[in-house]
Structure formats: structure tokens, C-alpha cells
Amino acid sequence: MRAGTITGTSKRTKLARRLGATLLLLAIWEVLSRTGVFDPFYMPAPTRVFATLGELFADGSIWSHLQATFTAALGGLLVGLIVGALLGFLAALVPILSELLEPVMILLNAIPRVILAPLFIIWLGIGIGSKIALAFVLVAVLTFFAVYNGIREVDVRLVERVRTLGGNWWDLVREVYLPSVTSWVLGNLRVAVGLAFTGAVVGEFVASFRGLGYLLSFAQSQFNAPLTIALIVLIMTFVLILFALAGLIERRLLAWRYR
Q1: CA-to-CA distance for 153 and 160, rounded, in angstroms?
Q2: Cα dihedral angle (175, 177, 179, 182), rounded to 10 degrees?
Q3: What are the φ and ψ backbone dihedral angles of 215, each rounded to 5 degrees?
Q4: For 161, how many CA atoms within 13 A lie in the half-sphere containing its CB?
Q5: How many CA atoms lie within 13 A of 81 on its CB side?
Q6: Residues 6+ apart with CB under 8 A from 196
Q7: Which residue of 75, 211, 217, 219 could cross-link 69, Cys pair, CB 3.0 to 4.6 Å?
Q8: pTM for this structure?
Q9: Alpha helices, DSSP H, located in the chain
Q10: What are phi and psi of 125, to 5 degrees?
Q11: DSSP string spanning 4-15?
């Protein structure tokens, strides 16, 4: 049997096991909720949760909130990747910038950056700008260190070899630094996607008039457990889909690593 066939069978088996475990867990949860072991007010049955989720899509009220959250998350992700990569690149190649930027980034990396959400609300208001800003900070710090470390980890002998062969600064960037940085950035892409969504949802949760975080805050204030769990399931589903897409991009662009 070919190795590719064995790998495909193994993946399908693993997927079937995970699906079976999830269905079993949902069935147990359903039984415990319906028999009163779980108080339905605090822990409604999965069928009630999915019915609530269906109502959100059936009446169309969810779409504007999805649009707001996705816009903030993807906007913060895009700007964070660009700015973080640019700053990391410059800091790794220009020592004086490294001395200025590294302590700031270390400080931002050390603190839970979601605590900046109230400050962004004060500065930028409760519109989408403050949510993009929070998602941007979360992603930019991660990307900065991915690029910064990616360049600094480049083998010095490789750099010297390019220079010995007559390569200039641009040749170093194109042939040595960019391939190394691409690997580091793509390796962190899935984490960046999760952080971008975290920033958008937390920002909406703190203060907003639209978005999944706003809906979550509303559901919490009403002690509406079915809506709260439905929204958590929805957010997890979208993040998992984006995780899978990011993983697919990583595997395509870094195919040599998975051979």
C-alpha cells in the first residue's frame, strides 16, 4: 500500500474518531440537560442552543454583526501583519531601531494586551476603529517577533557566503532573509488569526453597538444562556474555519517542510 494512501486513511480515521467523540459528548450533554441533572437555565440542551443559532440566521439579524466582527478582525490582521513585519524587518537590520523597538515590543508582549481595549475605546470611540486597533496590536507584536527572530536566526555563514559571491544588500534580502522570514511568519499565521478575532470580539464586548462581541455582552446581561453558548459556538466555528484556511496556505507555501 502506498504511503499517501496510508496517510489519507489515517487522517479519515482520526477525523471519524473526533467526530464520534463530539457526537457522544453532545448526546450526553443533551440527556443530562433533559433529565434535569444540568439546570436548563444555566446549561440548556444542545438542541436548544442550535435552535437559537438557527433563529439568528433565519431572521437575518446575525449578518450585520458577522460583517462587523469579520471586518475588524481581518482589518486588524492585515494591518498587523504588514506593520509588524516591517518593524521586525527594520529592527533586525538596523541596530539603533532594535534598541528602540525591542523593549517596547517585549513590554507589549509581556502584558495581556486586551487590557488596552478601554484605552482604544477612549481614543477612537466605540466604532470599528477601536476594534481594528486592538486586533492590530495583538497581531503586530506576534508578527514583529516572528520576523525579528527569523532574520536574527539566519546562519551567519550563509550571509557571508552571499557577500563573498558578490551579493549586495538586496540580494541578501531576496535570497536569504525573505525565505527565512516567510517560514516564521506563516508558521505563526494561525495564531495571528486567532489573536485578530480575539481583539475584535473583546473590543466589541467592552463597548460597541454591533458585532459578535456586542451580542455576547447583550446575552450575558440578559442571562440568556442559549444565546451565549450559541454565539460561543459560532465564534469557535469561524475561528476553526480560518485556522484551516491559514493552515492550508501554510502547507501550500511551505510544502518543502511537510515532505
Answers
A1: 14
A2: -150
A3: -60, -40
A4: 7
A5: 19
A6: 73, 74, 76, 77, 80, 135, 138, 139
A7: 211
A8: 0.82
A9: 3-34, 46-58, 62-93, 95-110, 117-124, 128-152, 156-164, 169-172, 178-187, 189-206, 212-221, 225-253, 255-258
A10: 85, -175
A11: HHHHHHHHHHHH
Q: Which amino acid is at 142?
A: L
Q: What pLDDT, in 10s, does the model give residues 192-229?
A: 988 998 999 999 999 888 999 999 999 999 999 999 99
Nearest alpha carbon to residue 179 among 144, 202, 153, 142: 153
Using alpha carbons, list the distances in angstroms from residue 133 to 98, 123, 136, 236: 23, 10, 5, 22
Instruction: Report phi then psi at 189, rounded to 5.
Output: -65, -40
Q: Do the Cβ atoms of 239 and 194 come closer than 8 Å?
A: yes
